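Please think about what follows:
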Amino acid sequence: MLADVDLRSELVDLSVPMLRMYGRLDGLVPIKVASDLEKALPNSEQAIFTESSHAPFMTEREAFCQQIVDFCRK
């Protein structure tokens, strides 16, 4: 299913604040997706965790949580 389904075009319909979070070493969601979505969703924010793969909430827990807290305070 992951290889066949691409919902990126539908993200433009979202009107809520959006924080996109990526692991730079992610093999499932390549980091190129971050730059593609940054162009498609200019009003969103992104965080890239340089030492993480697909689970930055585990490998960079404090930085991940801080990103969420900072985003929610805006």
Observations:
- The chain has a mean pLDDT of 93.
- The longest helix spans residues 61-72.
- The first strand starts at residue 19 and ends at 23.
